[in-house]
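Tip: read the tokens left to right.
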């Protein structure tokens, strides 16, 4: 399991290797297996074994996708080298791609109040080490057949307090500040940490 979105007592989970997007009813006293699997629209043959849907998120309820689910793969690439994604619910379902650059892969994402999609990305090379960044994908690019893109808001390497950053959420603080939470996965390795970071996303 990699991606997770929770809404109205339903957890939608993205799985890799045996690629699927499944839904579970949240009942802490009586959790059961999935009650439904969703059509993720991207041809299964295009999904790489360990590079499937790490982003599972609901679009804005009042936006063009009316709260429908959007999934983005980590690094399943089309012939142009862009990353497969899909709108799998709502009135405008269809496959799109996210422009890939600088060898960054996508590890999570969430929609912002204005309809843009905030993506968490990660890169690792022996020469350059571990890096992370946040990229703001323009909401109008999240549509069938489009190649979505947008500016980098933040990029950091191991000179900062980062690790294997894999989880992202966007939420509003009591004072109205728009918060971005990031969490890392230590993969049970003594060389990695579980790390939680918070940022304020300024809208000016």
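Filled-in amino acids:
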């Amino acid at each position: 399991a990699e991606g997770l979105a929770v809404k109205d007592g339903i957890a939608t989970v993205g799985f890799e290797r045996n690629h699927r997007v499944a839904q579970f009813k949240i009942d802490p006293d009586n959790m059961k297996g999935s009650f439904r699997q969703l059509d993720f629209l991207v041809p299964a043959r295009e999904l790489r074994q360990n590079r499937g849907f790490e982003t599972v998120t609901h679009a804005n309820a009042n936006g063009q996708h009316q709260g429908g689910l959007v999934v983005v793969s980590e690094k399943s690439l089309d012939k142009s080298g862009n990353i497969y994604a899909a709108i799998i619910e709502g009135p405008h379902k269809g496959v799109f791609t996210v422009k890939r650059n600088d060898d960054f892969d996508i590890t999570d994402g969430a929609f912002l109040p204005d309809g843009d999609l905030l993506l968490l990305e990660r890169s690792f090379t022996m020469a350059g080490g571990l890096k992370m960044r946040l990229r703001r994908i323009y909401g109008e690019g999240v549509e069938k057949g489009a190649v979505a893109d947008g500016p980098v808001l933040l990029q950091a390497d191991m000179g900062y307090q980062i690790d294997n950053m894999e989880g992202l959420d966007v939420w509003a603080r009591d004072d109205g500040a728009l918060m971005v939470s990031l969490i890392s996965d230590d993969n049970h390795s003594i060389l990695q940490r579980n790390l939680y970071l918070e940022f304020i996303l300024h809208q000016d």
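The mean pLDDT is 91. The chain has one domain: 3-200.
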